[in-house]
Amino acid sequence: MTPELVAPVHTGGPTVIREARVPKPCVIVIFGAGGDLTHRKLMPAFFHLGIDGTWPDDFAIIGVDRVAKDDATFRQEIHAALTEAGQDPDGQSEAWQLLEPRLSYLQGNLDDPATYQAVQQRLVELDSAHPGVEGHLFYLAIPPSLYAETIERLSSSGVLPRTVEPSQRPWARVIIEKPFGRDLESAKALNGVARKAMAEHQIYRIDHYLGKETVQNLLVLRFANSIFEPVWNRHHIDHVQITTAEEVGVEHRGPYYEEAGVVRDMFQNHLLQVLTLMAMEPPTTFRADAVRDEKVKVLHAIRSHTPAEMHEFAVRGQYGPGSINGKPVIGYREEERVAPDSVTPTYAAMRFLIDNWRWKGVPFFLRSGKRLPARTTEIAIQFKQPPHLMFAVPEGEHIDANVLVLRVQPSEGVALRFDVKVPGLGVRMAPVNMDFDYADGFGTTTHEAYETLLLDCILGDATLFIRSDEAEAAWEIVDPLIAHWEEKKPLHFPNYAAGSAGPAVADELIARAGAVWRKIG
Ligand code: BG6
Fold it and tell me: Residue 208 CA: which ligand 1 atom is closest?
């Protein structure tokens, strides 16, 4: 058992780097307003921004979707969706009263030019009714197969003008959801369409992991503290483990997941994004391109592998039946709308090597899977053993090396493990955790990732969004592996039981480097 030290309490008031800002009036158009993303993520985020008082007095949201309905029905649906998502629009009536009258609905098909004319007309009406409106945000909460056509039509209809300078008003920005393409080629094609229609500064490729509080805290931890930088390199770090474990299965998303699999769903975006923030060189300023330039350099420095070596560096798994929290659950192949002989991986573990001066020889182990024992996302930095130990450690025992853990979810915080002397007359050592928990330290619940990112986009801050070259560089890394796995079908799927820590091949992968995975949960 690891004894707990007293959690540190933050001292003094916070230093403001970038004050929470209230945006200028704007109009948001959500394509796919009847969909899951709008209901589960976007509307709760808008509503919560209202609770925080982060909305300007003047803003409007136009929902666009195929089904015919009037504004009142749309508003009722959003009210129900907020409740479903755990918000309380009746209890928080002030925020709901702010949001409700600003919601309106437009019925239209995305392949129909009339839809874009109707959007344009509604924008003109809103702009003239609200002269302070500074810009228009178009959110593509639609199936990825429709991204290109929608962008083209937005552009050709004149709804989405190209703005040469970011400072130009009214601004026009587009948020594109993941997956951004399904391989390098399609990502390049989509980038081509997007760049033909608009300037790069208008394109916001979203990855909600970048909006998570602890992921951003990684930047503060690394670059606002001087104690970490000297040890943040191959001289002191033995290896790094980045884990995103989920308890849930594929839920109702069988068809999407069958096409995607864990590498496209989690590695190409979320895990590689976290890795870049962990590994990048210090940017010179906290500006979008300065940060993104450094992230891209990391992606380019990741070593590639030939198909023959790939099994050494990456393993996959698929869950079979098992139990989660004592309740029996079905296997992936039995899930709704999943092929009974599916070979789609629901788990992967990989070893990455970054060929640069800072990281040469330091393995980065990344793993992610569905139906694991707990929902956990963390970055664990495992330091090296002391070079020489003057204490006599009994035969067969070892001391635990220092570990710095950044917990992204569920309980956000930072913990440092180090060894101390156990009180007593003899000299005995024990590892302890110095644990900082966000909720304990600041007494507030943190914001949902989508709130941060929506606000950033409206404010024109692209630091936490993915640039075109980043998206392509990430595909360059995972594409060969996906192709290799699609060609070499797995023979032993399912190979881990739901509720277990993943397949045995993942343990073997990390053991080859003399390490073990941290316990999940
Ligand atoms: C999404 C994936 O991007 O991220 C899902 O498509 C996954 O499959 C989800 O469940 C995980 O996000 P979070 O914020 O719950 O860790």
Answer: 14
Instruction: Show the 3-state SS of 425-468.
Output: CCCEEEEEEEEEEHHHHHCCCCCCHHHHHHHHHHHCCCCCCECH
DSSP 519: P
State both tokens at 178.
């993941």
Tokens describing residue 66: 């195929």
Nearest alpha carbon to residue 202 among 178, 168, 179: 168
> Could you tell me the mean pLDDT of each successive run of 10 residues in the chain, 521 residues long?
38 56 90 95 94 85 97 98 94 92 97 97 94 95 95 97 90 95 96 97 96 89 94 98 97 92 97 98 92 97 93 96 96 97 98 98 98 97 90 77 94 92 86 91 78 94 96 97 95 97 98 96 84
Query: Whose Cα sits closest to atom 5 in ligand 1?
Result: 265
pTM of the predicted model over 0.85:
yes
Check: CB of residue 470 under 8 Å from CB of residue 295.
yes
Ligand 1 within 6 A of CB of 246: yes
What is the set of active-site residues? 270
Ligand 1, closest atom to CA 248? 10
Angle between helices 213-223 and 272-279 (to 10 degrees): 20
Pocket probe mutation, ligand 1, options 176, 209, 212, 266, max atoms within 8 Å of Cβ: 266
Bridge partner list, 241: 365, 380
Q: Is the CB of 265 under 6 A from ligand 1?
A: yes
